[in-house]
Amino acid sequence: MNKVNKLSTLATLLACLGLTACVSTANQNSESVAILWEGQGEMGLCQLKGNIIGSQGHWYDYLFISNKDLTQGAINQLRNDALERDANTIYLFKPKAFATSVTIMANVYDCPAS
User: Fold this and answer.
1) How far is residue 107's CA from residue 85's CA, in Å, rounded to a whole number?
2) Please, is 95 exposed, middle or buried when counting C-beta atoms within 10 Å of its C-beta (0-12, 13-18, 19+)?
3) How far apart, in whole angstroms, are the C-alpha atoms of residue 107 and residue 18?
4) pLDDT higher for 60 or 89?
């Protein structure tokens, strides 16, 4: 392998490793968003704001990030998306099983204060 190919390979590896630290962080106000699992609450009094997907991890970085961090990143994405839609409640569906990432689908609602 010549010097140019070695440098190119090294640059690609470093770029991929640099991407592994990219886990979604939560917006400051997102902790106020409630999270409910499917079947956990009655949503009849709430206004549906849409559905969202939180996903974290890729085929090239899942070995370097713990499942806990991947899950927290997906939850952070959901909370941030809920805030953007003026929703205060996330109603989670059963997570999809993927080998290299965590993906969570949910509906978001604006519910009256209890």
Assistant:
1) 11
2) middle
3) 32
4) 89
